[in-house]
Every structure is written in C-alpha cells, then in structure tokens.
C-alpha cells in the first residue's frame, strides 16, 4: 500500500508505504503546528 500525506497549510507532502508510519508523521506534524491539518490519501483508491 502507498499513502500520501498532504498538509492544508504548508508544503508538507510525503509518501509512506506503511499506514502506521504515515499516521505517526501526520500526527507529529499536526502536534508541531497546531493550526495545520494533514490528510492521508490512500493512493490505491485515488
């Protein structure tokens, strides 16, 4: 599986092959920048 992370407020854009890693990265980014929202897109369904 492949997942893409996209932030609504900055150029944070990463890809992961593991859901847990993607979720951790998204959570870490949102914790660091409280007004940012990171979407995790499943590239197989996109």
Architecture overview:
By secondary structure, the chain is an alpha+beta fold. Helix content is about 30%, strand content about 30%. It is built from 1 helix and 3 strands, in the order ββαβ. It has one helix spanning about 20-30; strands at about 5, 15, 40. The chain has a 3-stranded antiparallel β-sheet, with helices on one face. A hairpin with a 5-residue loop joins strand 1 (about 5) and strand 2. The longest helix has 14 residues, at about 20-30.
Main β-sheet description:
3 strands, antiparallel
Q: Using only CA atoms, what is the Rg?
A: 10 Å
Number of discrete helical segments? 1
Strand arrangement across the biggest beta sheet: 2-1-3
How would the global form be characterised? Answer: globular
- Mean pLDDT across every amino acid position: 95
Number of strands: 3
- Low-pLDDT stretches are none
Order of helices and strands: EEHE
End-to-end Cα distance: 12 Å
Alpha-beta classification: alpha+beta
Q: Please state roughly what percent of the residues sit in beta strands, choosing from under 5%, 5-15%, 15-25%, 25-35%, 35-45% or over 45%.
A: 25-35%
**Helix proportion of residues, in percent?**
25-40%
